[in-house]
């Protein structure tokens, strides 16, 4: 074979259909008594390339001429061109380098290296249901291709055929590994629904972010799940990766039930920044439309979570896709208040009258109120048309400042929409006020009737305001009329007699609340103002209530006990004279 002038090797074994190129090259070199390095140099391959199935086209052609028989052929199942077959990203994650693993029963049946043993995540022989051996059973040293082909450990000289491997009794692991082996060479077959071998690994790499540090759903171990790396030795662990993939396999069985179990456990053990980062890393898979089926289930899960009050609307999935919030069924009470400006008391009042449905829940020791979205939408759309203070004034016929006084008295309910500084009002409530207080239409008005604004000016000194007019209208003491088609309170007319009766009522109420006015006291005691003032000064009697008018004038009121005291003083002075 000097100077590349060669013929066929003397001993040319058949290559097995599932035998790795590296294993076959070792087997050929041993059978023909050549050093492995000699053949690898002849093929212009480094030792690293030769023992890791990294054969280029030139090497394959030389190797074929040197060894292969007429009926032999080389394919991906022999480990050829796996980088191109799987793509570099997947290839770098699943192919084991510089060491091998094996099934003890397989090598007893026929001793050669199977290509499938090059895959890190495949760690079970599905023919014998045995865990693959990836280190010397006696000294735990990693197994090189040379050691394997020499059948002995270079450290302790253990014969690899003399030891058995552990039987697998885990059904999920067996099914998972069987599906991987079934689909590794066939890109049209699915490991799980909608996922071939490559898609499954992409999904798995994202799903690890939900599973990491969680429990083992396959029940293979009682330890928390960790992936890829054996921390004590810093290398990839085939067993851990196989277990991780078995958990991913379980996660997407009975979909989406198991998927939701994993999400629930994830939320329970992850908080704050760690939860956010891991969910963010998982959600990267949604950039690929091939995984829309996962995204739809994921979105549905968190819609249910927000409906139950477990997450808020600022949760990551809703930040990324705010349109999802339109599909929720319940909204937190505080969010309803923030968006609509409706106070808590008003919300519960609406609930009492079946305008809204509010559900009370206890979460983590705290009380939560959730408003059913359909009832809120209907309420806002059909019953809660809002108008401004100025628009209310145009309807009832008054300036906006008067509208505010009416609202302050409780006849209208101001609503702050979101963070707006301007109050809004329910048009239904305004219409109800108008319906209750608008005058009855008549063509013939009594000349003695007084128009609304004239009532205010005529009886201003008695503090007869619009609020009193509304109150007496509701109580039935005033029955307004109007003679025009205009429907504002400013067009109302009121009976003079009813007005005087209302003034008497006001007077009696104020006497009960504040006492008698100074002038009324002079009339009752039949004395002049000067004499009354002299008695008050000399006897140091103070008014029970002093009303300061806008112009600075003062009005003095005296309760019955004080008037009686003034009367005694008056009688005493008259007796002395």
TrEMBL record:
Residues 11-132 form the TniQ domain. InterPro entries: TniQ (IPR009492). It holds the Pfam family TniQ. This is TniQ domain-containing protein. The lineage of its organism: Bacteria, Bacillati, Bacillota, Bacilli, Bacillales.
């Amino acid at each position: 074979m000097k100077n590349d002038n060669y013929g066929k090797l003397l001993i040319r074994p058949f290559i097995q259909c599932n035998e790795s190129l590296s294993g076959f090259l070792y087997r050929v070199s041993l059978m023909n008594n050549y050093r492995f390095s000699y053949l690898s140099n002849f093929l212009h391959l480094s030792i690293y390339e030769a023992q890791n199935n990294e054969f280029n086209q030139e090497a394959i052609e030389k190797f074929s001429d040197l060894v292969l028989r007429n009926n032999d052929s080389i394919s991906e199942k022999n480990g050829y061109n796996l980088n191109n077959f799987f793509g570099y990203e997947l290839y770098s994650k699943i192919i084991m380098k510089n060491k091998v693993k094996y099934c003890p029963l397989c090598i007893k049946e026929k001793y050669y290296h199977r290509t499938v043993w090059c895959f890190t995540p495949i760690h079970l022989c599905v023919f014998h249901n045995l865990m693959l051996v990836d280190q010397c059973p006696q000294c735990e040293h990693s197994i090189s291709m040379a050691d394997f082909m020499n059948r002995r450990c270079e450290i302790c000289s253990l014969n690899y055929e003399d030891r058995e491997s552990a039987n697998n009794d885990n059904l999920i692991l067996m099914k998972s590994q069987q599906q991987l082996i079934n689909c590794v060479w066939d890109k049209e077959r699915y490991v799980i629904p909608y996922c071939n071998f490559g898609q499954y690994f992409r999904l798995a790499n994202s799903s690890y972010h939900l599973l990491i540090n969680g429990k083992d759903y396959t029940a293979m171990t009682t330890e928390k799940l960790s992936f890829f790396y054996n921390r004590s030795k810093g290398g990839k662990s085939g067993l851990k990766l196989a277990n991780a993939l078995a958990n991913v396999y379980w996660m997407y069985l009975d979909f989406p039930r198991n998927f939701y179990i994993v999400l629930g456990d994830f939320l329970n053990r992850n908080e704050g920044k760690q939860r956010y980062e891991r969910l963010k890393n998982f959600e990267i898979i949604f950039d690929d439309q091939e995984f829309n089926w996962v995204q739809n289930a994921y979105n549905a899960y968190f819609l249910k979570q927000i409906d139950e009050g477990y997450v808020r609307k600022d949760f990551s999935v809703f930040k990324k896709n705010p349109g999802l919030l339109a599909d929720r069924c319940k909204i937190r009470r505080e969010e309803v208040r923030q968006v609509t400006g409706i106070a808590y008391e008003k919300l519960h009042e609406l609930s009492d009258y079946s305008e809204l449905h509010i559900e009370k829940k206890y979460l983590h020791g705290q009380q939560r109120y959730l408003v059913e979205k359909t009832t809120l939408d209907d309420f806002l759309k059909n019953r809660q048309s809002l108008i401004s203070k100025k628009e209310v004034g145009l309807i009832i016929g008054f300036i906006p400042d008067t509208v505010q006084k009416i609202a302050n008295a409780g006849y209208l309910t101001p609503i702050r929409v979101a963070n707006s500084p301007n109050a809004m009002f329910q048009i239904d409530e305004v219409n109800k006020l108008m319906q209750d207080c608008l005058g009855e239409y008549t063509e013939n008005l009594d000349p003695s009737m007084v128009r609304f604004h004239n009532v205010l000016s005529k009886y201003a000194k008695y503090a007869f305001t619009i609020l009193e007019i509304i109150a007496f209208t509701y109580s039935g003491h005033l029955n307004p009329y109007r003679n025009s088609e205009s429907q504002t309170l400013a067009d109302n007319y009121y009976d003079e007699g009813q007005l005087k009766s209302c003034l008497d009522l006001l007077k009696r109420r104020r006497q009960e609340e504040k006492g008698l006015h100074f002038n009324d006291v002079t009339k009752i005691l039949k004395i002049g103002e000067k004499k009354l003032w002299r008695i008050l000064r000399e006897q140091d009697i103070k008014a029970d209530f002093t009303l300061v008018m806008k112009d600075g004038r003062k009005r003095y009121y005296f309760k019955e006990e004080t008037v009686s005291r003034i009367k005694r003083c008056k009688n005493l002075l008259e007796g002395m004279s």
